[in-house]
Amino acid sequence: MRGAVHMACPVGCCLAIALAELLLEDDGAGTAGKFLVRSKGASTDVFIISVIYKGQPTHHNLVRDGDGEEFALNKQPTGCTNISDVLEKYRSKQPKWPVPLTVRLQPRAQCVRNHAYAFFPY
């Protein structure tokens, strides 16, 4: 890491986009498919997959209607009802998905509000 990163909830209970980009670009910048999953606010149904594509961080909505419901990634059905299955599926090339997921970043700190990790180790 370039320096100490405090991963408090800068916006609700989510990892801010700027920090997500910093983490993705650090240690192996430009590694295609390097990714992390972060919450959008305090929701348990709306997430963002931030991933390196063509050398740059990109951000993709991962949403479901409620517990046990199918996730949609960028409004495309995934056929998966949990994040682990989504991530496993997208480790290989998929239609309408830019790059297979490769290296998953691990969480480094817990949310200061104890809501869970600032990004998710699924």
What is the terminal separation in angstroms?
A: 22 Å
Overall form? globular
Chain oligomer state: single chain
Secondary-structure element order, N to C: HEEEEEH
Low-confidence stretches: 1-14, 110-122
Helical content (DSSP H or I, runs of 4+) = 10-25%
- Report the sheet with the most strands, covering strand number, pairing sense and barrel closure: 5 strands, antiparallel
Which structural class fits the helix and strand makeup?
A: alpha+beta
**Strand order of the main beta sheet, please?**
1-2-3-4-5
Residue share in β-strands: 15-25%
Number of strands: 5
Helix count equals 2
Task: Tell me the radius of gyration.
Answer: 14 Å
Quote the average pLDDT.
Answer: 78
Fold and architecture overview:
The chain is of the alpha+beta class. It is 13% helix and 20% strand. The chain has two helices and five strands. It has helices spanning 17-25, 83-89, and strands at 35-39, 46-53, 56-63, 72-73, 76-77. It has a five-stranded antiparallel beta sheet with strand order 1-2-3-4-5.
